[in-house]
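Single Protein Entry

Contents — chain, fold
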Amino acid sequence: MTAETDTQTTTVYRVTGMTCGHCEGAVTSEISALPGVTSVKAVAASGEVTVVCAAPLADEDVRAAVDEAGYEFAGRV
């Protein structure tokens, strides 16, 4: 899912392997480091990660960040 406003883009991604708050924090930290990202909310229970950024992110960049955190990027919701 991707929603665009005048200045922000919100995209929801599916990430597998998250089981707890530490997992959420690791994924949040890595994705937050991507250029233009203003907000990240990871929810282990659903495997969803909501990202708000100034411009759409390339899926490859999000995948690399999730891989760096030690989890698996499963695409957009």
The radius of gyration is 11 Å. Residues 21-32 form the longest helix (12 residues).
